[in-house]
Amino acid sequence: MERITKQNPLRHTELRLHALFLQGLDGDAQAYRGFLQATTPYLRAFLRRRLGTWPDQVEDLVQESLLAIHNQRLSYDSGLPVTAWIYAIARYKLIDWLRRHARQDSLHQPLDDEDGLFASADHEAGDAQRDVMKLLATLPDKQRDAIVYTKLDGLSVREAAQKLDMSEAAVKVSVHRGLKTLAATLRETK
Asked: Taking the model in full, what pTM does it have?
């Protein structure tokens, strides 16, 4: 295992969460519980920075994010950073909440500083997201869109097929091929 230093605490976090998550997927309930518990403070900090004017909503969104992580756990590609996957899910839960909130309160309170919520993006999540987006940009459109809809947005294969005007089988094949290509690309860069 890599030595923990001041230069690589983010790498250590990634390795620890990744190992716990994979052990959990293999049926180790204690490791999975440990993964969820270790992930919670990161999600809380990520969401707290973005919901400064709605601090009461942070815990609800943490729970929604944890539930989405649990529901999507089988869609995770072990060749990709687990932290990027976690933050992407939390980001989409936050965006969904902001959309709902904006619709509900549009007559009462305009969302003037929507960009300000995302201006203070934390370094780790921003870097991970940029890396994922760079990788996804290397894929053909069909594969990239299928992965984004099913893996990042959390849509079902059926919903993604409808949005992409493709068959469900074609979406599954596109996701599989795209993830295989991304995994090979990551192996080549190591």
From this structure: 0.51
